[in-house]
Design brief:
The chain has about 180 residues and is α+β, with helices and mostly antiparallel strands. The chain contains 5 helices and 4 strands. It folds into 2 domains: about 90 residues, no CATH class; about 80 residues, no CATH class. The strands form 2 sheets. It has a two-stranded antiparallel sheet with strand order 1-2. It has a two-stranded antiparallel ribbon with strand order 3-4. Helix 1 runs antiparallel to helix 2, helix 1 packs parallel to helix 5 and helix 3 runs antiparallel to helix 4.
């Protein structure tokens, strides 16, 4: 069911862009020898747009009915893979002894200079268990820029959820912008 909705949305998005770009005008439809003359050819374009809106809504509903697309976990794994060496180097530069089991904990709130904080276990002492001796170190965003870009590119080319869910929405959004530009200019 979702393959049909994705296929229909992609087909109509491309059809609308090609229709407006080339300027197709259908004056007559011939089906099995029966001719139908259309007095106002613009109506077909409007019907295609109505069908496109319907299929966009249908694809949106089928996509939102899924609990998890596997996007967040996959991106976090890639982010950890590319970010961990930079974090260890930065924390060693700051004078912290860092083990290899750093926990990834992004904070989604924007602050002045530290966008991410990472937790790592401190050295075990006689008074506390290792799980209770955790320190949080604020790290600056600039050490995450290159790993974030690497993770994003890797995610785009290696995750099927991007091509199955994001590309139809991106194309539909581009079609919407193109329709608005054609109508209002």
């Amino acid at each position: 069911m979702e393959n049909k909705s994705r296929r229909n949305l992609l087909t109509l998005s491309l059809l609308i862009i090609v229709n407006y770009y080339i300027g197709i005008s259908i004056d007559e439809i011939n089906i099995l020898g029966n001719s139908l003359t259309i007095e106002e050819p613009e109506i077909i374009g409007y019907l295609v747009i109505v069908a496109w809106v319907y299929f966009l809504f249908w694809f949106y509903q089928t996509t939102m009915s899924k609990k998890d697309l596997g996007i967040r976990g996959d991106f976090e794994k890639r982010m950890i893979k590319y970010t961990k060496p930079n974090i260890i180097k930065e924390m060693n530069r700051l004078g912290y002894d860092v083990y290899s089991n750093i926990e990834f904990q992004p904070f989604n709130k924007f602050k002045k200079s530290s966008f991410f904080k990472y937790r790592y276990p401190l050295q075990e002492t006689n008074l506390y268990n290792e799980s209770e001796t955790v320190d949080e170190i604020p790290l600056n965003f600039r050490i995450f820029i290159i790993p974030f870009l690497k993770s994003s590119v890797s995610f785009v080319f290696n995750n099927k959820a991007f091509s199955e869910y994001f590309i139809p929405f991106i194309l539909a959004f581009g079609t919407l912008i193109y329709i608005c530009l054609e109508i209002f200019t």
